[in-house]
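Run log // design_07
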């Protein structure tokens, strides 16, 4: 992915960052509303500020989602381009055996067995090694996908084309993305 990021235009990176920060935003939201964070007035101010920032981030994401939906409705060729990318991605994933859903299921099974009081210490160690091996294999498969030049070029083109079309649909797109990136950086 590092190689593809260096080739991706900064603007298309902004669109990608929008998706990349979804999980951390959920975590930030959880911590922002945590009662333990209200230990002092300073902490309360910080929590209030984080809450305000989180609300603004959510508002920007809603605006960008709306712009993206309008853009896709107005540009069916982008939908076709996205479908072509998704098909190529799935083909590559199938070719190398990349299946994150299967990994999650396997990880849940392992976790249940490790937590089981009847599982011996040796079995726990073996299960933990099994999980580590599965995690390593998944990471290697993901790297293989990201190393596919053709696939990454398709992704970069889709991101750049989508961003350009979004800017054409709504000129505020770039400003919203810049504000979003700034807010996300302030939370780190």
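design_07 sequence
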């Amino acid at each position: 992915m590092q190689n593809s990021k260096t080739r991706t235009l900064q603007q298309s990176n902004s669109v990608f960052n929008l998706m990349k920060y979804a999980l951390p935003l959920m975590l930030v939201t959880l911590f922002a509303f945590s009662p333990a964070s209200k230990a002092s007035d300073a902490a309360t101010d910080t929590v209030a500020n984080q809450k305000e920032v989180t609300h603004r981030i959510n508002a920007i994401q809603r605006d960008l989602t709306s712009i993206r939906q309008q853009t896709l409705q107005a540009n069916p060729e982008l939908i076709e381009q996205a479908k072509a990318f998704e098909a190529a991605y799935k083909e590559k994933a199938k070719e190398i055996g990349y299946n994150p859903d299967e990994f999650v299921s396997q990880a849940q099974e392992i976790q249940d067995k490790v937590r089981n009081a009847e599982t011996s210490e040796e079995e726990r160690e073996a299960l933990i090694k099994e999980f580590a091996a599965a995690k390593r294999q998944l990471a290697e498969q993901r790297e293989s996908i990201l190393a596919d030049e053709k696939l990454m070029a398709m992704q970069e083109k889709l991101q750049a084309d989508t961003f350009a079309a979004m800017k054409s649909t709504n000129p505020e797109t770039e400003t919203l993305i810049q504000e979003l990136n700034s807010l996300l950086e302030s939370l780190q």
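Residues 41-74 form the longest helix (34 residues).
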